[in-house]
Design a protein that fits this description.
Butyryl-Coa Dehydrogenase, subunit A, domain 1, Butyryl-CoA Dehydrogenase, subunit A, domain 3, 3 domains, four-stranded antiparallel beta sheet, three-stranded mixed beta sheet, globular, flavoprotein, transit peptide, glutaryl-CoA dehydrogenase (ETF), flavin adenine dinucleotide binding
C-alpha cells in the first residue's frame, strides 16, 4: 500500500466542498469514458471532434459553467478551475475548447453584450449547439494586442470590418466569433456569425503541438455588420484583456492536469518496468524524481486552490493570475519532462500520454500571455513601474 496519492500528495481534496468534489469526479469520469481511449489517435491524426463532444460537454454543464443565467451552470470559480484540471488531464486541446467557449467567447457576450445578444447566443453555446471563438491575435500582433490592425469603421448605421486574426482556437469551426477591432472610438468587440459575407474561416495545419485542437485563421474582407453586432458594454483594451484573465485562470488549474497525468503514467510505468532485477521505481534516483514531481504538484495545487478561493471572494487581482499561470505552466512542463525521462524511449510514444502533454504545454506556455509577458505583469505589480508600453 502506498501512503501518498500522485493526484493529490498532500490531500488538498479535503478542502473541497461536496459540490466541487462532485464536479471533479463528474469531469474525470467524462474524460475517461469519452476521451482517453481516443485522444492519442486524434492527436496523431491532427483532428478534434468538436461537434461530437460539444453537446455532451454542454449536457454535463461545462460550457460557460462559471457564468450565470442563459443555461449556464453558475458554479464557483474554483469548481471551474478544477474542471479545467480534469479536462487537461485528458488533453490540453480539450481544455482549450471548453476554455475558449466559456471564458473567451461566452464571457464577453455575458459581460458586455446586449440582452438581445445574450439571448441569441448564450443558450445555444451553453448547450453545445453553437461553437464560439475569440478573435484577438493577429499575424503581427500577439503580445501587444493594442497594436492590432483589424479595424472597423462606421458606414451609416452599419460597421465595415477588415483584417485578419490568426492562431484562433475553434476558429475554423466556430458558428460565431467575438472579434476585437480598432475603431475611431477605441477598441470594440463585434459578434460575427459564420457565413457572413466577406468572413472566411481557414484551418491552420502542420502543428506539432495542440494537434487535437481546431486552430484557425479568420479573414474579414469588407464584412458588413449591423449596429447590433457591436458589444455595447465596453470600449478599449480592457475588454479583451478581461477575457484573457478569465482564460488564464482556467489555465493555471488546467496545466496541472497535464502534469498530473504524466506523473501518474510515469509512476505506473516505473512500478512495472524491471531493470537489474527490480522495478525501476525502487531506485534512488527514480524516487528522487518522483519526490520532486510530488512536491511541485503539491505546490501548484496549493497555489491554484488559493487563487480560486480569492476569485470566489472577489479579491483576485490580474497580477496574481499571472503568478499562477507563469508558475503552474512552468511546473507542469517540468513534471512532464521528468516523467519522460523515467519512461525512456517509451516516453516519446503516443502509447503513453507524456510526450503529448509535453508538446501541448509548449503552446500553453505561450498562449494567453507568454512567460515574458506574465513576468513583466508581475514585475509591474511589485514595482509600480511598467517595463513595456
Amino acid at each position: 500500500m502506498t501512503a501518498l496519492s500522485a493526484a493529490d500528495p498532500i490531500d488538498l481534496g479535503a478542502m473541497l466542498s461536496d459540490d466541487e468534489k462532485a464536479i471533479t469526479e463528474s469531469v474525470r469520469s467524462f474524460v475517461k469514458s469519452a476521451v482517453l481511449d481516443e485522444i492519442a489517435e486524434w492527436f496523431e491524426e491532427a483532428r478534434f471532434p468538436a461537434r461530437e463532444l460539444a453537446k455532451p460537454l454542454g449536457e454535463i454543464g461545462l460550457l460557460g459553467m462559471h457564468l450565470e443565467g442563459y443555461g449556464c451552470a453558475a458554479t464557483s470559480a474554483t469548481a471551474y478551475g478544477l474542471a479545467c484540471l480534469e479536462l487537461e488531464a485528458g488533453d490540453s486541446g480539450l481544455r482549450s475548447f471548453v476554455s475558449v467557449q466559456g471564458s473567451l467567447a461566452m464571457f464577453p457576450i455575458r459581460a458586455y453584450g446586449s440582452e438581445e445578444q445574450r439571448e441569441q447566443w448564450l443558450p445555444g453555446m451553453a448547450a453545445g449547439e453553437l461553437i464560439g471563438c475569440f478573435g484577438l491575435t493577429e499575424p503581427d500582433s500577439g503580445s501587444d494586442p493594442a497594436s492590432m490592425r483589424t479595424a472597423a469603421r462606421r458606414d451609416g448605421a452599419d460597421w465595415i470590418l477588415n483584417g485578419t486574426k490568426t492562431w484562433i482556437t475553434n476558429g475554423s469551426i466556430a458558428d460565431v466569433a467575438v472579434v476585437w477591432a480598432r475603431t475611431d472610438e477605441g477598441i470594440r468587440g463585434f459578434v460575427v456569425p459564420s457565413g457572413t459575407a466577406g468572413f472566411e474561416q481557414r484551418e491552420i495545419h502542420h502543428k506539432m503541438s495542440l494537434r487535437a485542437s481546431s486552430t484557425g485563421e479568420l479573414v474579414f474582407d469588407d464584412v458588413r455588420l449591423p449596429a447590433e453586432a457591436v458589444l455595447p458594454g465596453v470600449v478599449g483594451i480592457r475588454g479583451p484583456l478581461s477575457c484573457l484573465n478569465e482564460a488564464r485562470f482556467g489555465i493555471l488549474f488546467g496545466a496541472l492536469g497535464a502534469g498530473r497525468a504524466s506523473f501518474e503514467a510515469a509512476l505506473a510505468y516505473a512500478g512495472d518496468r524491471t531493470q537489474f532485477g527490480k522495478p525501476i521505481a525502487g531506485f534512488q534516483l527514480t524516487q528522487h524524481k518522483f519526490a520532486d514531481m510530488a512536491v511541485r504538484m503539491s505546490q501548484g495545487l496549493t497555489l491554484a486552490l488559493h487563487l480560486g478561493r480569492l476569485k470566489d471572494s472577489g479579491g483576485l487581482k490580474p497580477d496574481q493570475i499571472s503568478i499562477g499561470k507563469l508558475a503552474n505552466v512552468r511546473t507542469a512542463i517540468e513534471i512532464c519532462r521528468t516523467a519522460r525521462t523515467i519512461l525512456g524511449a517509451n516516453g516519446i510514444s503516443l502509447e503513453y500520454p507524456v510526450i503529448r502533454h509535453m508538446t501541448n504545454l509548449e503552446s500553453v506556455l505561450t498562449y494567453e500571455g507568454t512567460e515574458e509577458v506574465h513576468a513583466l505583469i508581475i514585475g509591474k505589480g511589485l514595482t509600480g513601474l511598467a517595463a513595456f508600453a
